[in-house]
Amino acid sequence: MNKSWLALAALLVAALAQAQPQTIALDVGHYLEKPGATSAFGVTEFSYNQALAEAVSEKLLSAGYTVRLIGDDGQAKDLHRRAAAASGADLLVSLHHDSTQLQFMQSWTVEGAKQMYSEHSKGFSVFVSRDNPQFARSARCATALGQQMQAHGFSVNASHAEKIPGESRDWLDEKAGVYTADFTVISESKVPALLLEAGVIVNRDEAPRLSSATTRAAIGDAILAAAKACLQ
């Protein structure tokens, strides 16, 4: 086979590869029995995560991506299986909403029920694991997401870097809001993976904003833009 035929074959292979829709796995953080944090208004984190996953999925599907939802039924208790379920995807994004350390929490009453809140922190944060076999690509996608979150009007939560028990996370890219952490789903995944804490739901100002369709759509736009930037 001469060089011109080899060149043509390479172009055809590249074109076919580009024609295949890329797959993004969305992991819905936590599950019904252990739903994660509780907002300042008594709403579970899992409910926030589930609603955000729906909004993000809609954005990605409309842009031509294939979406693989993991844990959206609230029954996925095994974190190791969650990581394995992303196998073959081009990117795994684990969706969460944040709380803060107990020492900063205080109580108030919402519709007759005692709830806990804190104004200590707010904003988003992104995490990647150095144990992920595709750490370099994970980091690139995480930085792209942090940049896009800010471009869409969200601020970085710097509280995870505070030198206190339960925090002291290492920055990977402080400007973009990216930390390193060995969370099971992103560290054991064989594909590029990141974890997004979309915002702090124990914050009384941020919780209602994070529950709005407009905010969820904006986060979806940020994830879509980041995916386009890092999955080239």
Notable features of this structure?
alpha/beta, Aminopeptidase, globular, signal, 7 helices
Quick gist of this model?
The protein is of the alpha/beta class and 232 residues long. The chain has helices at 3-19, 45-62, 79-85, 135-151, 184-188, 206-210, 213-230; strands at residues 23-28, 66-70, 91-98, 106-110, 113-117, 125-128, 170-173, 178-180, 193-200.
SSE diagram, text form:
Elements: H1 3-19, E1 23-28, H2 45-62, E2 66-70, H3 79-85, E3 91-98, E4 106-110, E5 113-117, E6 125-128, H4 135-151, E7 170-173, E8 178-180, H5 184-188, E9 193-200, H6 206-210, H7 213-230
Parallel strand pairs: 1-2, 1-3, 3-9, 6-8
Antiparallel strand pairs: 4-5, 6-9, 7-8
Helix pairs in contact: 2-7, 4-7
3D architecture notes:
- Pfam families: Amidase_3.
- Keywords: Hydrolase, Signal.
- The protein is built from 7 helices and 9 strands; from the N terminus they run αβαβαββββαββαβαα.
- The protein has helices at residues 3-19, 45-62, 79-85, 135-151, 184-188, 206-210, 213-230; strands at 23-28, 66-70, 91-98, 106-110, 113-117, 125-128, 170-173, 178-180, 193-200.
- The strands form 2 sheets. Strands 2-1-3-9-6-8-7 form a 7-stranded mixed β-sheet. The chain has a two-stranded antiparallel ribbon with strand order 4-5.
- 45% of the residues are buried.
- The model is unreliable at 9-16 (pLDDT under 50).
The total of beta strands comes to 9
Low-confidence regions? 9-16
What share of the residues does DSSP label as strand, in percent?
15-25%
CATH homologous superfamily placement: Zn-dependent exopeptidases
CATH architecture: 3-Layer(aba) Sandwich
Report the sheet with the most strands, covering strand number, pairing sense and barrel closure.
7 strands, mixed
Radius of gyration: 19 Å
Distance between the termini: 30 Å
Classify the oligomer. Answer: single chain
Coarse morphology: globular
GO molecular function: N-acetylmuramoyl-L-alanine amidase activity
GO biological process, one term: peptidoglycan catabolic process
Catalytic activity: Hydrolyzes the link between N-acetylmuramoyl residues and L-amino acid residues in certain cell-wall glycopeptides
Domain MurNAc-LAA: 81-228
